[in-house]
Amino acid sequence: MLNSKLLKVLAALVLILTLVWAGSVSAAACTSLYLGKETTENGTYIWGRSEDISSRFSKLFTVHPAETHEPGERYQSSTGFSWPYPAKTLRYTMAKDSFHNEGTTPEPYAEVGVNEKNVAMSATTTISRASSAISAIDPQISTSRGGLAETDLTTVVLMQAETARGAMELVAEIIDTVGAAGRESFTVSDPNEVWMMEILSGHQYVAVKAPADKIAFSPNITMHGAVDPTDTENVIVSPDFVKTAEDAGTIVRDENGNIIVSRSYTNAGTSVPGRMYLGYYYLQGVEAAKALTPGYFNYYMDPREGSKYTLYEAMRFLAYHGNPDDPADGKYVANPSSNGSAIGNANTVESHLFETRDDMPADLATVEWIAMGPAEFSIYLPYYGSQITETFENYTAYDSPSSAPDYRSMYWLFRSIYALCNADRTNVAPKVSEFLEAYQKELIRQHKEIDEIMAEVYAYEPLMAQKKATDISKAAAQQAYTVMTSIREEILAYNQNTDPDKGVFVPSVLNAPIDTKYTFNSVGGTGLPAYDIIKIQENDSHLIYNGNWGLRAQIGRFDEHVAKSSSQTNASVSFTFKGTGFSLISYKSYSQGTFDVYIDGVKDKSVNNYQPGTDSAFQQVVYRNRMLEDAVHTVTIVLTGRQDPSIGSNVYVDAFEIIGVLDGFTQGGTLVDDDVMIVDASPIIIDVLANDNVDDSAVIELISFNTATLRSGMVAIVDDGKKIKYTPDRLVACDDDEFTYTVDGETATVTLIFAEKMTYQENFISEDLKFGNNDHPQKTPGWGDYNLAAYWNSSAKRSNQAGDMVEITFYGTGIEIIGYKSWSRGQFEATIWNGGVPFTKTVSCFDPSYDTHYRASVYNSKDEGLALTEGWHTLIIKVRGDKETDALGTAIDIDAINIYR
User: Fold this and answer.
1) Going by DSSP bridges, is the β-strand pair 562-566/550-553 parallel, antiparallel, or unpaired?
2) Which CATH code fits 529-665?
3) Taking the model in full, what pTM does it have?
4) What CA–CA distance (Å, rounded) separates 747 from 183?
5) What are the tens digits of pLDDT across the range 640-663?
6) What is the dihedral of CA 179, 185, 186, 192, to 10 degrees?
7) What CATH number has the domain spanning 3-385?
8) Pick from 110, 513, 526, 757: CA 20 to 30 A from residue 826's CA?
């Protein structure tokens, strides 16, 4: 990253400064690190970078959610760069610049992150200026001309890349198309491999798959050595990679004919950069460092002999500023406040490392360790970056400018800790460092334990793993914030103490047991179930069916060979259990329909069982929820018809898997309140005693509606006092209605929860539905009953007599009339009152296509823009007895009525 980022200027000026500064190694101080999995103690890839800009430049660590985009929609940067959005972008973590420091790019310099496909990225380390001969042929493309810059690179990649190689190919496509504004190197990984790309000039680049047996680091220098452009499995180069160097007269090949990248594209250095020396010293030892000579340096190198590298060593590498115990050759920088020769220095705004593990599920393979502020006096906190959906609020909530830093900000807190320790390395820094080392090593140890359990949680339920990963990382960040805030306050108090004998500062937490809160106990446990998984078949007595359901046998296909199915809209099945989750096992094909899942009366999800093609899929888990609170739950599955291109609306219940118990549970007291889902006007039987803690002799003694609420139907005690029958008799769709029942003097409440759309047939018996003739009260209405399978529930009312009307009184927020459209249908007049004001519309049921449409929506108050408040309303439909010119009849049909909650 370049120091030019400090300037809040227009894109063109940023480009100019970029070109001026890029050739100077000392002007940019990001340092990247790579350790192949064969070189590390735990057999993992470890790689990352320190991001160095300024000593007062805040960063925000957050999560960008997944999004959908319309065709033609583009990512538009304030720099001038633009690129098409994919239809769906991925969720990803990012450490972006504060808007107090940068311009209005959507996410300025989101330098590091992991997306939900477990693609991790660190970008960028600015590399050497291209030689003048290369620049003359292939100059950088300014952002004002649409070139891709570091500003947007990570965002554009993480929003869509699904593999590390795919990320390289995406950037290659962008550079081939619009060019590059800067010379950058960046690294991307997925659960299987790591790739590193160097952008060398306006349109030239090289990407190499990192070898597992090598190590590497880069202190802002073009580092790639010999590459074979024909090795397309491990190398990706720009189309003119070879030709550009040939035309410039700078191409250099090794004895095998491979292109030596750094020698072909850049000028040799005239000295050994300080960070290059320190990196070799730290990673390979003093003799390797002393053997360095000016010129070119290879990125990949052999690891040290003997012990393999640890994660903690990698963390300290990004904080390294020399060996104080080796004054002659260790090149210790005593106060690295602004010294670009130190890897760890005051200009570091955040440091990060990724671990990629082979022994974890792919979605958990990568751990993102991130430390805010300079790494020397910070804490790397671990994140399952592909899983988390949010971060601890103090990473973003207290963002503030450098002129007035808010130390509730994670960045400013750790920046302050560094400043206080760096200012007094004799008295303050030593014991703080001692504590931070112990704290960091404890986090590393705990993470191994978390890994083992998180893998179990993920195997049980990936969504639970996502929740626990988010919660546990927030708990750890909150604790680190609390601990370091305490240390900061103690240092400030120590500095104000004028006692000359006060001694060395010792944080109060140093001698206490380390408590990182990085445990499952901090977030309410693992989420793993306390119950066995039980399976019940479609005919289990705990399942309550409403509507028309039939049995179908398929030997060897359905679970235990049999399933129940229905194609009736609003048919339902429900059950009550105590536990934490359940699954529906069903059947998918080109003829299957849709359904809604309600849990405790609240719609959780809409499901479509359609599957394209002629193959059928039996015993499919079409819905699963393992994230419920351990409590009593009532589940209702409501059929909702079909969606094109399905040719049918069947839904099958093959079996349910339940994580919990179906019998023997109570919910406090003797009687338990019940929630009952109402999905249509069919009478239902409610077994209220099933959940009550009563003996077999108990009977229901009394039922009464709560007079303070709407009365939507009639209730009666049936089955020798064991059950209650509820029969709707009003046109109602409300949030809820309720009644009470009494057993042995104790009372419980039954809450009736209505579907979002309630369907009532034209023959529904209610005072709210009146067919007649308003124009001629003495005349016999012309409404007739017609039976046809194509109608909803095979029946409808029809009239062609002018003046015939239907008066519909309903409770809800909207009304829809279901009828019939064809070449032979006429017109009606619809009048609805809203706030005492009538709204009248003439509606035609004629279909000019001469197609016939049964169960068609012929009127919907919501389509008229009428925002009805929840309450009682009246709609009057009057047959006009006329028609459109081309229609062959004047009749209208009333098939069903939908009332909206």
Assistant:
1) antiparallel
2) 2.60.120.260
3) 0.79
4) 76
5) 999 999 999 999 999 999 999 998
6) 100
7) 3.60.60.10
8) 757
